Structure formats: structure tokens, C-alpha cells
Amino acid sequence: MIDETVAEIREMRSHSSSAVAVKAATALRELLEREYVSADAFDRELEDNAGALRRANPSHASLHTAMRSICEAVVGEADTPEAAKEHLQDAIEAAIQRVEAGKRQAAAHAADTFADDETILTHDYSSTVLEAIETACSEGTHLTAYVTEARPRYLGRKTARTLAGIDRVDPHLLVDSAAGHVMSEVDRVVVGMDCIVEGTLYNRIGTYPIAAVAEREDVPVTVVGSSTKVIDEFHFENEFRSSSEVMREPVAGIEIENPAYDATPVELVDTLITDEGVGEP
pTM of the predicted model, to two decimals? Predict the structure, then answer.
């Protein structure tokens, strides 16, 4: 299960970084079924597997935080393998609860900020943003949502399809480069985040130009996500994905760049909403 989860994370089969952190934590339960001669042997196995899961996507701060918190709660804390397993079981549950509760509370705080008949623009796919919209609309709020495709993986299309299934939402899908065309009609940009590290928002590629256009057009930008994604002790490593996502049949002499994330200065972000509340980044 751990090896399969490493492969899944590496291939980015899940679009939600929170879901990735939960999958990784859950995968570590496999260690509970193995036999160990000592607590030290168990600790080494845990550190090795948590490290492999973390390295599967070094850009996900929530994954990094979950694996680190589990190791810190277990390694060196038990004298027997049986006791170490009990610590691991508790640490896994705590990590999952922390991620899910943070996401749920961030969405609840964000839902309270939507105004009736507000027009928003969102980018990529954020399960937390979608939960916030669904909550707000279930309470009677009407929204118009412009959704950019988030090329080249087109995750925005999944967002638009999800929004189409929510009552009181009027979704519009557009290509990334059309964000400036509709920005004058937008009241607010609302996006999720992969992480915020030392004054920089890392999110799906295309976020930076949208934030820059919003700044130029005096449209506020709101970022929504769990506080586990706001982290200081983390070295963000961008992922450069397959060139085939951009051009199926590459042309000789062309080097195709396909970064997964871009870096947006938090100076372009007006509001940060996490499980801790609504404030400035």
C-alpha cells in the first residue's frame, strides 16, 4: 500500500494536496501489520517510509507536515514494537484529523465571506474552495463563478463541472489567458493554495498572472486553505511535469517547459482564510 501510494502521489492522481496528506498518513497503517524485532527497527522503518512518501511530492507542504508530525510523535517514544505501533496508530489518526478539520474549518470561514450575487473568479481545483462555495450556496447565497481551465492538465474543467452541480451557482469556463478579459466583471478572485512559504504563495501554474491582473484591476484576491499549508521550515521544490501534457508530439529543437506551480508574492493577496480565521497573509 505504501509503494502504491508513493506512485499515486508522484503521478499526481489526486488533485487535492489535503487528500494527498491523508492518503500518505493512511498508507503508513501498513506498518502496523508487519513484525519487528525492536522498537528501533520499527522507528527506522517508519522514518524510511515516511521519507519516501514525503519525497514523492516535495512541493506539498501539507504532506510534509503530516509525515513530520507522525514521525515526531512516534520515533524514540516507545520501548517495544507493540507500544510503537500504538503510538503510530494514534499519530496517524491525529494527523488525518488535523488535515480534515483544518480544511473543513477553513471552508466554513470562507463560506461566511461570500456575498449574495457576488461574482468570483477561481483557478485550478481546490476542494476547500468548492466546499466553501457549496456551503454558502446551501444557505441561500447566489454566485456567478468564472473558472479558468488551469492548463495543461485542465483541472479547472473539473471545478466547473462540480460547480454546475451546485444550486445557485452560475459557472462559466474560460481559458487561462482570458482571465484579464473578464476581470472587470469580477468582484473577487478566490483560489486555494498548495502552500505559503516565507511570503510566497505557491499554487497551480497560472495563479500568478491572475493575481497580477487582479491587482491591476483593483480586484481583491482571497486565498483559502488549511493552516497546515502555511509553513516556515519547508523547502518548496517545484515539479516539472511531462512535456507530453503541453504537446503530444514534440517538435525537434523545441524545449518544452511544464512547471506545475508558480510563485505569487503574498503582496498580491488581500485576504488569507484558514481554519484559524480570516486575516491577511
Answer: 0.89
